[in-house]
Design brief:
The complex is a heterodimer of chains A (174) and B (324). With 174 residues, chain A is mostly beta strands. Helix content of chain A is 2%, strand content 48%. In chain A, strands 6-5-4-7-8 form a five-stranded antiparallel β-sheet. In chain A, strands 11-10-9-12-13 form a five-stranded antiparallel β-sheet, with no helix packed on it. A three-stranded antiparallel β-sheet of chain A has the order 1-2-3, with no helix packed on it. In chain A, a hairpin with a 4-residue loop joins strand 10 and strand 11. Chain A starts with 6 loop residues before the first strand and ends with a strand. By secondary structure, chain B is of the alpha+beta class. In chain B, a hairpin with an 8-residue loop joins strand 3 and strand 4. The chains are: A mainly beta (174), B alpha+beta (324). At the A-B interface, strand 1 and strand 3 of A face helix 7 of B.
């Protein structure tokens, strides 16, 4: 919690002179306003922990304004707005489980699974016989995300992607 | 668990280059008649500095009724000075040093330290020898020399020696550290913050840069200057924003050294930290007589980073801590 807002630590750099006090230079995203700020703390300083809970929910559908998720055990549904979904919108796959962070019961962050499988909707046909991956080519996925894939991967194939780096991992297991 | 964690964090090519640098360093000392020593990594006593955290472990003697605590040394300083008192003459050591609560782009909890001592040298003469080593290993030009006071004034517009705590608090606030300045009542803590964030990144960009005459309140194991009681005969070496070495015209007064250790332990107590056992053998060696000398500790991993243009310590050590 900082200035009354729950925050997410994006980067934390350890600063310490050989003889002297250690500091942490922290880059923080305020989860409500979305602002990114830098702050320096003395090592060992503490701040109030945000009273947030993470829940595992299945993604259902988007209605243009909200993205809807459901708890598969209680069938309770929750709607997240654009601010909570953010850039992760491009990794949402129907029925996939996402981690939703709730603060005072309202979703503030939507985190997709580390790996998702998506169909390629458009990519240039690659050269036949290329298996070594010589840099790859761009491919558009069914969710709208654009990633680099090896030349041998074709339109219509389903691929596995690491959502943290946005990188191609492999062809999906059939 | 990542399955790739068995792999080294440094490339084999970097490790080969590192081995060549180590050879150069040993050759540098061999031709100067400084001999290599090897002192214990484990001791029942350790450093008292409140900003250094020693690892500890239990030694079980086969005939003793109970185990005793031993500390992994944060530098080989105390044992090397005992050798100097025993008449060793000029010595150097390349060894692992251990510091808990330290990890980051420039820190690994165990790291390789080069430490050497020159009886009969003062800190200025030792700085010249370090300069020669830098030129040998890095192929750089002669280092610049500035005083802590001048360089602080130049970049922050304030005299760090004469400023009051209130002045430094106001300065820290002006640079956006309001959250720290409001509650911090130790002037040195705020000086360290301002120096590391607003002076260090701006010095030693083209040439290595020695910063000399640190505030007397940050003397550590250095002599206080005989001409200016506000400063200590302590220096640090910076290059490309990296703090590379720390050296002293060594304090030889056993009573004064003991007083500083006890002061450290008092600070530890007031900050809620455990006190550390004072190295009585080291104090006894000082009382016996440490020859007038200068000494320096230099981070080998950081030196290799500079030599090979690596941006992170993990790129120059075989297995950084999370892969150890």
């Amino acid at each position: 919690m900082l200035d009354g807002e729950p925050c997410n630590i994006l980067e934390n750099e350890f600063v310490k002179p050989g003889k002297g006090q250690a500091f942490s230079r922290v880059k923080i995203r305020k989860l409500i306003s979305g602002k990114v700020i830098e702050k320096t703390f003395k090592s060992g300083d503490s701040v109030e922990g945000a009273d947030v809970i993470d829940t595992e929910l299945a993604y259902l559908y988007a209605d243009g304004e909200f993205w809807h998720f459901m708890n598969n055990e209680t069938f309770e549904q929750i709607a997240a707005d654009e601010k909570a979904v953010g850039e992760n919108v491009k990794w949402l796959v129907e029925n996939d489980t996402c981690t939703i962070t709730l603060w005072n019961g309202a979703p503030i962050v939507v985190q997709p699974a580390n790996f998702v499988e998506l169909e390629i909707t458009e990519t240039d046909p690659g050269l036949k016989g290329d298996t070594a991956g010589t840099g790859g080519k761009p491919a558009t996925l069914s969710s709208g995300a654009v990633i680099r894939v090896p030349l041998f991967v074709q339109t219509g194939e389903v691929v596995k992607v690491d959502t943290r780096s946005g990188e191609y991992v492999s062809r999906a297991q059939k | 668990m990542r399955t790739e964690n068995w792999r080294p964090s440094a490339s084999i090519e970097v490790l080969k280059q590192r081995a060549l640098i180590m050879q150069k360093i040993r050759q540098f000392f061999a031709v100067r008649d400084v001999f290599e020593v090897d002192t214990p990594a484990l001791s029942p006593a350790t450093v008292t500095d409140e900003h250094l955290h020693s690892f500890s472990t239990q030694f079980i003697h086969p005939f003793a009724p109970q185990a005793c605590t031993l500390y992994l040394q944060t530098s080989p300083e105390f044992a090397m000075k005992r050798l100097l008192s025993a008449g060793s003459g000029a010595i150097y050591q390349i060894c692992k040093s251990f510091r808990n609560e330290e990890t980051g782009r420039f820190h690994n909890p165990e790291f390789t330290m080069l430490e050497w001592y020159r009886p009969g040298f003062d800190h200025l003469q030792l700085m010249s020898e370090i300069d020669e080593l830098m030129q040998t290993v890095l192929g750089c030009e002669t280092a610049k020399r500035v005083t802590y006071q001048d360089i602080f004034k130049q970049h922050l517009g304030c005299d760090p020696l004469t400023a009051t705590l209130t002045d430094i608090k106001a300065l820290a606030k002006q640079y956006g550290y309001g959250n720290l300045a409001d509650t911090e009542n130790n002037k040195d803590t705020l000086l360290m913050l301002l120096f590391s964030q607003h002076v260090e990144p701006n010095i030693g960009q083209n040439l290595p840069c020695f910063v000399m005459d640190f505030p007397a309140s940050q003397a550590a194991l250095a002599k206080i200057s005989p001409t200016n009681p506000l400063v200590a005969e302590r220096f640090e070496l910076y290059f490309h924003g990296i703090e590379l070495a720390n050296g002293f015209h060594e304090l030889t007064d056993g009573a004064e050294q003991l007083r500083r250790f006890e002061e450290d332990n008092a600070k530890r107590t007031s900050n809620g930290l455990d006190t550390m056992p004072i190295d009585e053998n080291f104090i006894a060696a000082l009382n016996f007589g440490l020859p007038d000398c200068a000494g320096v500790a230099l981070g080998i991993d950081r030196l290799v980073m500079l030599a090979l243009s690596c941006s992170s310590i993990e790129q120059v050590i075989a297995f950084e801590n999370s892969r150890a």
